[in-house]
Design a protein that fits this description.
The chain starts with 12 loop residues before the first strand and ends with a helix. It has 4 helices and 11 strands; from the N terminus they run E-E-H-E-H-E-H-E-E-E-E-E-E-E-H. The chain is of the alpha/beta class and 181 residues long. The radius of gyration is 15 Å and the shape is globular. The strands form 3 sheets. The chain has a 5-stranded mixed beta sheet with strand order 1-2-3-4-5, with helices on one face. The protein has a single domain, classed as Ribonuclease Z/Hydroxyacylglutathione hydrolase-like (Metallo-beta-lactamase, Chain A).
Length: 181
């Protein structure tokens, strides 16, 4: 969490993989590069939500890597000050599958799921802030229904873009959050 005093509690994540470290929807902050270096060399930056272009370009340039965006995300491409690299159904060189969550003319969002490690990354549709509901994990208040593509998943941990990530009871928290309303 780059700026923990913020009400929005914006979070970004570093995923340590066999291919290197992937930075997800990064926010730049003092000490970021030192913390990431403890995990290994940065292999890429990925933007999973169109409003999370944040500091992706500047962080990628500093690490001399590309910014990647799922191939179907046009809104994110428009908001970036660079031509991003397209990714398909997987995050290159990793066990992460790219899941399409939301694809409208006002909101685009993808999630990452690694079944082997039990890790799920959901940048916006789910979160742990009070505005997302009073459960340990809730649906973004701007969504009428939770994304159906998250049902029938069993993660051990859920990394969110707003609030603290869920490391205990993640599957149960996800099941409760994505029940049809």
């Amino acid at each position: 969490m780059a700026y923990p005093e913020e009400d929005a509690e914006r979070a970004s994540h570093a995923l340590s993989t066999d291919a290197g470290v992937w930075l997800v929807d990064p926010l730049d902050a003092a000490g970021l590069d030192e913390r990431v270096a403890e995990l290994g060399a940065v292999t890429g930056v990925v933007v999973l939500q169109d409003r999370h272009t944040r500091d992706a370009v500047s962080v990628a340039r500093r690490h001399d890597v590309a910014v990647s965006v799922p191939d179907w995300m046009a809104l994110a491409r428009e908001k970036l000050d660079t031509v991003p690299k397209s990714i398909g159904s997987t995050l290159p060189g990793t066990g992460y599958t790219v899941i399409r969550l939301i694809a409208t003319d006002r909101w685009e969002e993808a999630a990452l799921v690694d079944e082997q490690t039990g890790t799920m990354v959901v940048p916006e549709a789910l979160g742990t802030l009070p505005s997302f509901g009073d459960s340990p994990l809730g649906v973004h208040p701007g969504l009428e229904e939770p994304p159906a593509s998250l049902r029938d998943r069993s993660p051990d941990r859920i990394l969110v873009g707003h609030g603290q990530s869920v490391h205990d009871g993640a599957t149960a928290a996800l099941e409760t959050a994505v029940e049809p309303r």
